[in-house]
Design brief:
- The protein is of the alpha/beta class.
- The chain has one domain.
- Strand 7 and strand 8 form a beta hairpin.
- The model has no long low-confidence stretch (mean pLDDT 95).
- It binds iron/sulfur cluster.
- The site of iron/sulfur cluster has 12 residues, from loops.
Length: 184
């Protein structure tokens, strides 16, 4: 599988302190995408599932993890690996938030159980108006897991878009919902 980053604590893409996982691969090429470096499957981001599990387990053994945010790239572009990872993560937390460029209708045949929240749809730069948790207002937040409905409804009422910077081996990575003029 191809995963570019696993970061903790991500506090700007869902409630609490989360593990953020950035998948590679996205066929859409949205104008203004904040992660164009993740469109292709690059060899340096190839990683086996066991290593991903070990990294996540290591973070979880030393920290309080409130949930997971899967983004990219498009996690669903590597659907089989994505499903395998979601199955694993769901044993740790049921709070799994997933970003995808597909609309919910386009992936209606896929197995979305064990996903708590799906934020769907491509990024449309002209519709980037600062809406919470979403790059553009055509994207929708689907709370799939009823157990977490209240948690997310409360979060959505109180949260604000913020940016976090992480130091990585690739330099600084800026995480969060960026404004239209953001320069990567
Ligand atoms: S769907 Fe997301 S990752 Fe893919 S090009 Fe659009 S903004 Fe970038």
């Amino acid at each position: 599988m191809y995963i570019a980053r696993i970061l903790y604590p991500v506090e700007v893409l869902g409630p609490g302190k989360r593990i953020g996982i950035w998948f590679c691969g996205c066929p859409r090429r949205c104008k203004g995408c904040s992660n164009p470096e993740l469109w292709e499957f690059q060899d340096r981001y190839k990683i086996n599932f066991l290593t991903v599990k070990k990294l996540i387990s290591q973070i979880c053994s030393q920290n309080l993890v409130d949930g997971f945010t899967l983004t990219g790239g498009d996690p669903l572009f590597q659907y089989e690996d994505f499903r395998r990872l979601v199955d694993y993560l769901s044993n740790i937390s049921e709070d799994i938030l997933v970003y995808t460029g597909y609309t919910l209708e386009e992936i209606s045949g896929k197995n979305l159980d064990k996903i708590a929240v799906l934020i769907d749809g491509e990024y449309i730069e002209e519709r980037n108006n600062g809406c919470l948790l979403r790059g553009s207002d055509n994207q929708k937040i689907h709370i799939i897991n009823d157990h977490l409905k209240e948690k997310y409804e409360t979060y959505l009422l109180s949260a604000k878009n913020q940016i976090q910077n992480f130091a990585t081996t690739d330099g600084y990575i800026s995480v969060g919902i960026h404004r239209k003029e953001f320069q990567y």
